[in-house]
């Protein structure tokens, strides 16, 4: 299977399309079949099926598409989103958010891992997805994905909204950091220590930044940052 990214744009108004080229006998599963905008090949090469109950619960969707080659499939992504191809070989200790999974090949095995009670409290989730086997997955993320190495002692502070995958052995603490002013004006962070690599999505929607770039006044911006609840009362 070949996967081609047709447009690398990730701005607010930029979309991205991905093209799957499947040879004879090759298959891929797409978890968002409504995003398919073009198909070339034998019409019988597309079969939509109901997900299992775990997939329905985690993805909040009912249907996934199974595509069999030879065929060519074009899928559209929402503006600002990217598809990250990731090869899986053997065992992997990465735990993923199921909502980020866009596609996978038949050789991929999925295990739902129940989190430890402490991690449930930190992540506000009770289950993650662990992938193993041989094949490739497509991860749907807001902005491009970056890999960051963890350390056993020195914590990596990561915006809680940005984490796509983390090692199963990672130790997590929900926190903020920096001085008093910094801690007041940041989203909750995960303090992560351990071994392995975390996957971080590089884009986050930020309405305040967009407003600033569109020419918001300096005085308004300063008052929003300095005054308590300034972001609420000063529009």
Description:
With 235 residues, the protein is an alpha+beta fold. It has a single domain (2-225), classed as Double-stranded beta-helix (4-Layer Sandwich). Helices cover 17% and strands 46% of the residues. The chain is built from six helices and 18 strands. The chain has helices spanning 53-59, 117-123, 180-184, 207-213, 218-226, 230-233, and strands at 2-5, 16-22, 27-30, 36-41, 46-50, 63-68, 71-77, 81-90, 94-96, 101-104, 108-114, 127-142, 145-149, 156-159, 163-167, 171-175, 189-193, 197-201. Strands 3, 5, 6, 8, 9, 10, 11, 12, 13, 15 and 18 form an eleven-stranded antiparallel sheet that branches. The protein has a four-stranded antiparallel sheet with strand order 1-2-7-4, with no helix packed on it. The chain is globular. The N and C termini lie far apart (50 Å). The model has no long low-confidence stretch (mean pLDDT 81).
What is the N-to-C succession of helices and strands? EEEEEHEEEEEEHEEEEEHEEHHH
Helix content: 10-25%
Overall average pLDDT = 81
Intertermini distance? 50 Å
Shape: globular
Please count the beta strands (DSSP E, at least 2 residues each): 18
Rg calculated over all Cα atoms? 20 Å
- Briefly note the CATH topology name: Double-stranded beta-helix
Largest sheet: 11 strands, antiparallel
How many structural domains does the protein architecture include?
A: 1
CATH class: Alpha Beta
Q: List low-confidence stretches.
A: none
Number of helices: 6
| SS-derived structural category | alpha+beta
Question: Roughly what fraction of the amino acids lie in strands?
Answer: over 45%
């Amino acid at each position: 299977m070949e996967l081609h990214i047709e447009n690398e744009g990730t701005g607010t108004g930029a979309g991205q399309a991905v093209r799957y080229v499947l040879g004879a006998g090759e298959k891929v599963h797409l978890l968002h079949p409504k995003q398919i905008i073009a198909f070339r090949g034998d019409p019988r090469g597309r079969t939509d099926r109901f997900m299992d109950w775990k997939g329905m619960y985690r993805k909040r969707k009912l249907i996934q598409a199974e595509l069999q080659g030879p065929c060519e499939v074009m899928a559209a992504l929402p503006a600002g989103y990217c598809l990250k191809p990731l090869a899986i070989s053997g065992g992997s200790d990465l735990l993923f958010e199921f909502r980020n999974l866009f596609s996978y090949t038949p050789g991929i095995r999925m295990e739902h891992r129940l989190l430890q009670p402490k991690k449930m409290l930190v992540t506000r989730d009770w289950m993650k997805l662990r992938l193993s086997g041989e094949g490739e997955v497509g991860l749907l993320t807001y902005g491009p994905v970056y890999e960051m190495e963890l350390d056993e002692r020195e914590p990596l502070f990561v915006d809680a909204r940005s984490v796509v995958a983390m090692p199963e052995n990672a130790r997590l603490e929900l926190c903020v950091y920096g001085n008093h002013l910094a801690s007041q004006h940041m989203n909750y962070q995960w303090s992560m220590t351990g071994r392995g690599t975390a996957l971080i999505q590089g884009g986050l929607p930020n309405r305040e930044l967009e407003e600033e770039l569109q020419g918001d006044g300096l005085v308004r911006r300063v008052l929003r940052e300095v005054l308590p609840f300034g972001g609420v009362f000063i529009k």
